[in-house]
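Attaching the record inline, Q. Sequence:
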Amino acid sequence: MKRKNTLRDLLSAGPEAEAAAQPTTARVPSGAVRAMGLSLGHLREEAQALRASIEAGDTVVELDPALVEGSFVNDRLAADSEGELRALVQSIAESGQQVPVLVRPHPDKTGHYQIAYGHRRLIAVRRLGVRLKAVVRALSDAELVVAQGKENIERRNLTFIERALFAAHLEAHGFDRPTLHAALAVQSAEMTRYLQVARSIPRAVILAIGPAPRTGRPRWLELQRLFAQPQAEDMAAQVVAGPGFRALSSDARFQRVFESLRHGGAAPEAGRFWRNPRGEPVVRIEQSAQGMRLTINERLEPEFGTYVAEQLEALYQGFRSSREGRKAR
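Structure, as predicted:
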C-alpha cells in the first residue's frame, strides 16, 4: 500500500478498517523495512490524532506560510539535514502535504500564527511556494511547548545537549517542572542532569561546540565537572577562539574543549593525535622510553587500521629508501 493511501485511509476509515490494516503474521524485518514501518507507524499515530482533533471540532485550513512563525522557544543548535529536507520537499511536491501542522493564533500579531509542531513541513511548503495545511487551535504557552517537545521526541534525533538547552530555555521562560517533564517526556533525575549541564557550561561554549551528535550524556556530564575548575571558562574561551576550531566537526570541537580543560588549559603535546579532515582524533600517538605506539580509533574511521597494517611493508620500504637517499647525499 502506498504511503499516501495509507494516510488517506486512516483519516477516513473507522476502527474496523484500522484493525484490518494491522499485519497478521510476525516477521523479523530488514533495516529498510523496519525504518519504513517506523515511518508509517508515526504517520498512523499522527493521522489518528488528527482525526480525533477533527472529530472534536478542529478544522484543517490552508494558510499563507509567510504568516506562520516558529516557536518562541528554540530547540535546535543546527539546521535540519539538507538531504532530509529535500526528500520532504519532493514528497510534498509529488503527493501533497498529507499531514497538517498545528498552529495557534499569534499572541502578539493579529492575523499571524505560531507553530507548535510541523516545522519541517513549514520549511518545505515555503520552498515550494504553496499554502500550508494546518489545524489552528488556541494553545497556552505551556500547551505549545509540550506539543513542540512531543514532536522532537517522536523524531528521536535531538542530541543530549539540544535537549538540555531546550529544558533550560523553558525554565528561563518561567515554566514549572511538570511542564518541563511533559515537554521532554523525562523524569526528575534526567531533567536535573539536563539543567545542571546547561547551567554549568557557558552558553557561548555550547553554541560554539554545536549539537555534537556522537557525544552522549556521560561526556557532557564529565565536561560539566571540568568547568568547576578555576579559570575553566577562560580556558574554554581561548580554545573556541583558536585557529581552526570552527573548521572542526561538532564532536571534534567538543573533544578539543574537553582535552584543553582536562589538561588544565595546557595545549596538548605536539603529535598527540593525528586528525582526519573533519578534525576527529583518529590516531593517538604515544611516545615512551620503550618506543612509539599508535592507537587507531576505527569507530571514527572504520577499517583504517586494517588498511595501515596492510601497508606496513610498503611503508617500511619507503622508509628504507628515504634513509638510503639521505646517506647518499
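Residues 283-329 form one domain. The beta strands are 60-63, 68-69, 101-105, 113-117, 132-136, 273-275, 281-288, 291-296.

More tomorrow.
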